[in-house]
Amino acid sequence: MAVTDLTSGQVRRFARPHTAAVLLALAALLALAKPALPEFLTRVPGWAVLPYDVWMQGLFDFIKDDLGLIHVTRTISAGLEWLLDITANLLYGKNRWPYLGPIPWTAVAAVAAVTGYALKGWRMALLAGGTFVWVALVGQWEIAMQTMSVIAVAAPVAALAGLLLGLAAWKFPRFERALMPLLAVFQTLPFFTYLLPAVIFFKVGPTAGCVATVVYAVPPMVLMTALGLKKVSSEVVEAGHMSGSTRWQMLRHVYIPSARTELLVGVNQVIMLSLAMVVLTAFIGMPGLGAKLLSLMNSLKLGRSFEIGVTIVLIAVTLDRCSKAWVVKQPEHFERGTPWWRRNQVLLIGIAAFLGFLFVAQFVQVADHIKRDQDFSIGAEIDGVIRAILSNKAITGVTEWLRWFLITWVLIPFRNGLLWLPTASVVLAAAAAGHFVGGRRSALLAGAFFGIVALTGWWDRSIITLYAVISAVVLAALIGLPLGILAARRKKWAEPILLVCDTAQTFPSFVYLIPAIMLFGVNDVSVVFAIFIFATVPLMRYTIEGIRAVPEELLEAADMSGATRRQKLLKVQLPLALPTMAVGFNQAIMFAFFMVIIAAFIGTQDLGQELQKTLAGNQLGKNFVLGMCVALMALSFDHIIMRWSANRRRALGVF
């Protein structure tokens, strides 16, 4: 019996790679035999393409008009518009109720500095206050406040919605099982897919931008809320019950305080995603930093674009650092009988600073607002410097040769090769990868996802999108992985590189287009270069974290066995770090799928370009189908890589 069990176990162990190899061999055979294949195996014929866009358009029209959802959304739109008018009036002086704005820039900067000090001392105060001083002095206060006025509404609404959905997911397992796949899809949908429905249901401008931002930012708050509440220890829960707490008291005084860290991490993610999305809503008429950056990049004013980019980055870093400091800062407790003014000392200082600068601004014009002839903007000068640098023959010689080499010998041949492959070969290759890591179910899932993409009629555009993603991620791996390994093995390099990674992750995606256009112009190299910069960050970060997480006992055992540094790396550190590195690789691919849609602004021939075109009309069905193609390809990679990582962790006994 034991022999039978062992034999069947071996069969199960080797059946999966064997079947995957058969599927891969069949895919290669179909590719080699392409000239002799019938048309339906090379490309899905026109008569077999399913009219998903027509079906989806009909469904959306039915929901919008026949069910009357448009009237509900317009009512919600009116409420959001009222909130946006309040924040706009306070921050940049839109003449609506409550007719109190705009708040002077000095008062905002002072409150930001006091808040930073309360969260993490004088360094954070300098960052927070200095950011708003910069914004005012370079003459970007109004457009920055247009952006902040939307974030001030979108982030709290998204956090509250995510909290409520997370509570429901934690309380009702069936709801969680239904919700989690939807959140996975939402997190892989390209941002253009959020914009058109927002425009149709909520009108062009700040209201539509706010709605798109809320929907985009909700998923991480839901996930972190459910995770935090599940992690509350049973001992804490039992203590709450023993004290006679009601269900509401248990939630308010036991569960939520115990899950405080996870909830605040969710809030941090909401804030960062809100800033990233509100910049991108420039495509649907949202004023602010994104709209200004878009118009400047359209006219190739790269110096001024760089200045706007610095402002966006500073605001992003400030919001990120302050919200992270809020996560780690524990509530402060005072002894009974402490005077109220001592308990609220920082709050009182903030109010005093706000009122003081508000008073000064009534008499000193510069303290109230900076006029155009008073700012320190050097965008035109930066334009001149960039032109001088790019006209340098040494630099242009290198970039032109690199552009020629990559386009002629790498990118275009790779793109043409992928386009040449029969559709059936690509679907079978995806199924083979799925079967290798997860068996029959994963094979069916990966193959079905690519099969659905083929049936939409957008196969070639999808393959061009895939080509840009794969090219950029391979390039990022070739550079990011060695740098990550090098940094992980030298402590003095690890912290600076992690700091760079943390900072780079706060950059809005538009910023990465600036160096790409500056160096390579408008072509495929710029697209791949922008994606490469964006995707390198998670690869480096997770490589460093994975290698540094290897237990010291194992490293000491390797040293005692006489292993060299190279042997220790190849035999101990990398094998144990691979599951974590796989997560970084997965994140790089997800980032690349996101960035390739942004890169449509440069001028591509992929799904991003088609998605951008749908914004000009009422093509909601086509918009959703194109977004679904991107999401399905991204979900295929996500499933395969994360399944492999889980298998590897299980084999290593690391959970």
UniProtKB/TrEMBL annotation:
Coiled coil: none
Transmembrane feature ranges: 99-119, 126-144, 150-170, 182-202, 208-229, 270-290, 302-319, 346-367, 418-436, 443-459, 465-485, 576-603, 623-641
Compartment list: Cell membrane
Record's keyword terms, sorted: Cell membrane, Membrane, Transmembrane, Transmembrane helix, Transport
Topology of this chain in the membrane: Multi-pass membrane protein
Pfam family, one: BPD_transp_1
Domain ABC transmembrane type-1: 144-323, 462-641
Principal place of residence: membrane
SUPFAM superfamilies the UniProt entry points to: MetI-like (SSF161098)
Entry's family note: Belongs to the binding-protein-dependent transport system permease family.
Name the UniProt record assigns to this protein: ABC transporter permease subunit
Species this chain originates from: Albidovulum salinarum
